[in-house]
């Protein structure tokens, strides 16, 4: 079986918005996940708090499950290649774009990558809620960059009054409509938005370094809990057409979806694995195990209308058990490597 592709999460934002602070927060709250980090320079990353085990040219290997490397955009693909090698055992790669990098270029590089071991994990745009209006008058493109975001993080809420916060929120909603928006400070968002924790038994008890890392991060605890997850299961197959419609008109606030789909196909290899982030959709297929087939989805976001999402998914159930092969063909355009995966 092919290995799961590793999600690559891009963190963008203007100078000083709080990108490194968010990255450090994720490192301190990684819940057993091994994080590969790509930054432009190590300067601000809390490397010493994470027990450096060894350093190889531009890559720092951290004792407790983090690989950190520094590259500019031209070296990104090569670095993603190194981080996604199976022996690195990485669960998620986080790329922190420099405050002056053009996020569109970074996104293009990521989407165009032919590396079969990675997949797009979303673009989180960090916005300095206190300074955004001022920065935007000098750099009007800042608002435009929000159009690329799959998640908007309004950071430094502690420094912005209600008025300023409301203004930035309005701009974000105008340039990134329907995109989940989190208001926070010191990057304290729930890491489960970006990656799945490893079950405790696979990484054992907290090590001394983990505890020490936590101590070093004053803001690591007390996560802001605006993150929501909705679980949907169905023993009835879903109609591929209806589900495609759901995917292509995703509910406001939805950031990512993962799970297994039963689309009513007669093919034994029709267990579809689904990963979406923002409007990016990827399906893979495998054989169903013996036993009943089920759709099981987890939807993650902020500001989701739980009842409406569940209602829409329930309405995706097929009316009967006649396979809709034509409908299936339409959704299969999202299949990962359709030519080689059979
Ligand atoms: N008051 C306050 N300060 C914050 C917050 N988030 C980050 N900071 C501080 O703001 C400064 C800039 O944060 P960074 O995380 O380095 O910002 P950055 O986006 O990585 O900056 P560049 O790498 O220069 O683009 C640091 O001094 C942080 O401690 C916040 O929510 N509230």
From TrEMBL:
Keyword flag Nucleotide-binding: yes
Gene Ontology, cellular component aspect: cytoplasm
Catalytic activity of the protein: GTP + H2O = GDP + phosphate + H(+)
Pfam families: cobW, CobW_C
Domain CobW C-terminal: 227-317
Family stated for the protein in its record: Belongs to the SIMIBI class G3E GTPase family. ZNG1 subfamily.
PANTHER family for this protein: COBW DOMAIN-CONTAINING PROTEIN (PTHR13748:SF62), COBW-RELATED (PTHR13748)
Protein name: GTP-binding protein
